[in-house]
Amino acid sequence: MSANKLKIFLLFNFLIPASFFIFTIYFMPIEQVFQFDSSDEGIELIKTSLYSDGFAMYTQIWNDQPPLSTVILASWFRLFGKSIYSARLLTLTYSTILVWSFCQTLRIHLGKIPAIIGTLLLIISCNFLRLSVSVMIGLQSLAMVMLSIFTLSLYQQNFDKEKSKIFIIISGGLLGISLQIKLFTAFLVPLIIFELLQFNFKKRCQGQSKWSIFFDAILWLTAFSSVFIMIGVFCNSLTYEQLLKSHLDNNVKTAFPIGNSLTLVLSFLLQDFDYLLLAILAIIIIFQKKQWEKSFPIIWLVTGYIVLINHRPVWYHHYLLLSIPLTWLATHGLTLSFDFFQQRRWYSRFKPSNFKKVTVSGLAAGFVIFSIFVTPIKLGVIILENHKYIEQSQENIQFVNIMLKYKKSTKWVFTDCPIYAFYSGLRVPPEIAVLSNIRIESKSITPKQIISVFETYRPEQVLLCKSKIIRNYLNSYIDEHYLKTYENHLGTHYLLKETQDLSRS
Question: 465 is in which domain, residue-wise?
Answer without folding.
Answer: 396-504
